[in-house]
Design brief:
Radius of gyration: 51 Å
Strand content: under 5%
Number of helices: 2
Length: 146
Amino acid sequence: MDEAGEEAVEDGQDATNTTTAEKNDRKESVETTESKLRSESFRRGEMNTGPLSPSIEGDAVQDIYRKQVARIEQLEKDNKRLDKELEERQKALSRSEKVVEELQDKQGDIATLKEKAAKADEIAEEFDKLVRYLNYKEDGALLTRC
């Protein structure tokens, strides 16, 4: 081939590559634009309310609504019951904590009383020793007088 023919083939390939690149750019541009439009409509709260799920007849909708209402009522009752149980358990916990505190105070008092009792026993023992000593001295004094 001559140079003119080779250039024509290269120009044809460049044209094909350019056309494909332009198509890809246009496709990306369209996709980007569609994405932006969807995002903007979503932010504005405009939802495309096309049928996402099969249509439900009026009676079925009412039945579902009744079931949901019943379930909500049951959950509210359960919630109230659980609130009452929580309150009762908190009161019981508070009473138990007071009892524990009183027992700890009494335990401290018992320890103090044990210490005092031990000291009283020591004093009583010392008193008994002194009484014996005095009795001994009196007995000795009586013996020497006689």
